[in-house]
């Protein structure tokens, strides 16, 4: 499959994300924030970083980048979209996912190998995992606290939209320890930790993140459209 | 402003700093943002559009409330 990785001004992890896409057995296509063009890709990754300097709010300006008009339309039509860290913030600002990410409750940047539990393996990006599988991948954020109002949180939990939850350590004050969520259809996933940094033994804390980049092949046959 | 139910870590930091400077009696601090938009004309239509700007870009309605007020420029 062809998976596009968007580069915004201030993206940091676009290179790692493209590499993870290739290690996952897919073709990585570089996409540019200023283009109204998805170059025929089958799925899109919005990588981590500090797009547009995090000015105004994280992801608030990126949401209106020309490429995002295409990503939002494609996501609504069922195209798989994965937002990692800053990409997760962009998905929330775009209203493709509910809730928002705010400053960590302890007000410090956090950078650690974080244990997670995969709570939903029925999404386009998590089918390679076992339901309830525990994985450890890098987490690095300053504004990773997931919040939503009470009715929204109840809906997220009730409909099984939590994709991953923090285990053993609360790194950022996220409500219910939420590390990632999906939409109702399961094609859009936002995740605060960084699976693209855990795709091979040599350069990461292990290979626990690789599943996010191999899942698409497994789910390609399923209809998310 | 962050909605009342949303944690405001920056406000909490300010709240913690005040007693260290000898200022007592403050029971809570919330920190928000203020945008000053300069407009040639202020009509009901323009104000409606400003509210739209606030809803669309300047605030995130999921976590923030906003108010729009009109002020005369200081010459």
Brief sketch in words of this structure:
The complex is a heterodimer of chains A (225) and B (75). Chain A is an alpha/beta fold and 225 residues long.
The total strand number of chain A stands at: 11
CATH homologous superfamily of chain A - what is it?
Class I glutamine amidotransferase (GATase) domain
Task: Classify the secondary structure makeup of chain B into a structural class.
Answer: mainly alpha
Q: Oligomerization state of this entry?
A: heterodimer
Strand content of the residues of chain B, in percent?
under 5%
What general outline of chain A do the C-alpha atoms trace?
globular
Low-confidence stretches of chain B: none
* Count of helix runs of chain B: 2
Count of DSSP E strands of chain B?
Answer: 0
Named at the architecture level, the CATH assignment of chain A is 3-Layer(aba) Sandwich
- Residues in helices of chain B, as a percent range: 25-40%
Write structural notes for this entry.
The complex is a heterodimer of chains A (225) and B (75). Chain A has helices at 14-23, 66-76, 86-93, 150-158, 211-219; strands spanning 2-7, 27-32, 43-46, 81-84, 100-102, 110-118, 134-141, 145-147, 162-166, 178-182, 188-191. Chain A has 225 residues and is an alpha/beta fold. Chain B is mainly α. Chain B folds into two domains: 1-32, no CATH class; 36-75, no CATH class. Chain B contains two helices and no strands. The longest helix of chain B is centred in the C-terminal third of the chain and has 15 residues, at 44-58. Chain B starts with 8 loop residues before the first helix and ends in a 17-residue tail after the last helix. Chains A and B meet through loops of A and helix 1 of B.
Secondary-structure topology with pairs:
The complex is a heterodimer of chains A (225) and B (75).
Chain A lengths: L1 E6 L6 H10 L3 E6 L10 E4 L19 H11 L4 E4 L1 H8 L6 E3 L7 E9 L15 E8 L3 E3 L2 H9 L3 E5 L11 E5 L5 E4 L19 H9 L6
Parallel strand pairs in A: 1-2, 1-3, 3-4, 4-11
Antiparallel strand pairs in A: 5-8, 6-7, 6-9, 9-10, 10-11
Chain B lengths: L8 H12 L23 H15 L17
